[in-house]
Design brief:
By secondary structure, this protein is mostly beta strands. It has strands at 8-17, 23-27, 36-38, 44-52, 59-64, 75-79. It has a single domain (8-79), classed as Thrombin, subunit H (Beta Barrel). Strands 3-4-5-2-1-6 form a six-stranded antiparallel β-sheet, with no helix packed on it. The relative contact order is 0.35.
């Protein structure tokens, strides 16, 4: 829709960071694969590469674009 503002949607929190730099997030909603993920500063940190776990408590892997450390329990967002 023309003129529609992009909305901010809370995705979830950091569960762990893998040695490869991939982030594992405990999520509140299941995003589409390839969806861009943003930090609390609205900077893009990476994109969703896989969905893990049971439907009741899903997790996603996010391939990061930078090696920036994220604090434990950091909150991540999607832009609509």
């Amino acid at each position: 829709m023309p003129g529609r503002r992009r909305g901010l949607i809370r995705l979830g929190t950091l569960s762990r960071r893998l040695e490869s730099g991939t982030l594992v997030l405990a999520v509140e909603r299941i995003p589409p694969l390839g969806q861009s993920v943003h930090d609390s500063q609205l900077k893009e940190v990476g994109s969703v590469t896989s969905i893990l776990g049971p439907v009741a408590c899903p997790m996603v892997e996010v391939k990061t674009r930078t090696k920036k450390d994220q604090p434990k329990e950091a909150v991540f967002y999607l832009l609509e």
